[in-house]
Amino acid sequence: MIVVTGNPHKLLEIRPLFEKHGIRIEVSQVDKMEVKSDDVVVVAREAAKAAYRVLKRPLVIDDTGLYISALSGFPGAYASFVQKTIGNLGILKLMEGITDRTANFVTAAAYADGKNIEAFVGEMPGRIALAPSGREGFGYDPIFICDGEMRTYAEMSFSEKVAVSHRTKAFASLLDWYDRVR
Amino acid sequence: MIVVTGNPHKLLEIRPLFEKHGIRIEVSQVDKMEVKSDDVVVVAREAAKAAYRVLKRPLVIDDTGLYISALSGFPGAYASFVQKTIGNLGILKLMEGITDRTANFVTAAAYADGKNIEAFVGEMPGRIALAPSGREGFGYDPIFICDGEMRTYAEMSFSEKVAVSHRTKAFASLLDWYDRVR
């Protein structure tokens, strides 16, 4: 199966899942076509459809959003653009003086093989930290504390994060489904 | 010609331009398919292409971005999502303590008729105000001061804004081109 991603961190996180299911993967960095939608399921499905038109072989592609309650769901599915521009310090500045720090990380993983497109969602509720902390992971990991934790994703070890993360949940559901239908 | 927009403010701004060129318009609110790109030209062209597939008649559609230098181009082509979530107060919070307030408003207006897709760009350089001011217009108008002005777009009268705006420039270019080729 082809995994479409240009992000080495993501790949590191999901590769072991595919191995556990005995699925050999290849990586493609074909440009991800992204529709502008606030729904990561829509983004992932359309991206899978578009990537299949180029690669013409079974593939998976994912999209992740971070939804902060006090900011009306910002940055949502635009998480990567927001990370590239205002970054974690921008998010913390927006959250200054705000006590409700609830946030939800959502990954949609979509599979396409020319006949089917299937999308699976993994969520991780949590909160935005008061300051960035930790060096593991990438993106919002230094400012996101998942439910049941006192540490940010970036303070958890790689294997601790991967054991619980939104992305793991999405890909685990996808692979369970794939096991049943293949 | 069909103007695809669900925004009555935009329509009010551009309708007189079409009338000046003797072009009768119809308005369609068909859903705008938006690709996730930081380039308004790409967004407008793809949206025009997609709308043509639905409407099958000559049409125009536009996309507008606001690029703030000190925020690495944020909110860019995601201006409408950012407006809906963190809004002008969010932008001002991000700009607290920042002296370089340079910003650029960019509209891309795209025309599609099944054979051609043409896009035209209008820009308006300016700066982000220290506080929102004024009641005219919509979106970022209360916090955007265009070059050569002391007032925000929202403090200018409707006709003053329309005379200079990024959106007017884009549609004026499009209509000049249309006059030459039709």
Question: What topology does this entry show?
Answer:
Two copies of one chain form a homodimer.
Chain A: E1 2-4, H1 8-20, E2 26-28, H2 40-55, E3 59-68, E4 75-76, H3 79-85, H4 87-94, E5 102-112, E6 117-128, E7 144-146, H5 158-164, H6 166-181
Parallel strand pairs in A: 1-2, 1-3
Antiparallel strand pairs in A: 3-4, 3-5, 5-6, 6-7
Question: What does this entry look like structurally?
Answer:
Two copies of one chain form a homodimer. Chain A is α/β, with parallel strands linked by helices and about 180 residues long. Chain A has one domain: Maf protein (Alpha-Beta Complex), CATH 3.90.950. In chain A, about 35% of the residues lie in helices and about 25% in strands. In chain A, strands 1, 2, 3, 4, 5, 6 and 7 form a seven-stranded mixed beta sheet that branches. In chain A, helix 1 runs parallel beside helix 6. Chain A is globular and about 50 Å long. The mean pLDDT of chain A is about 95.
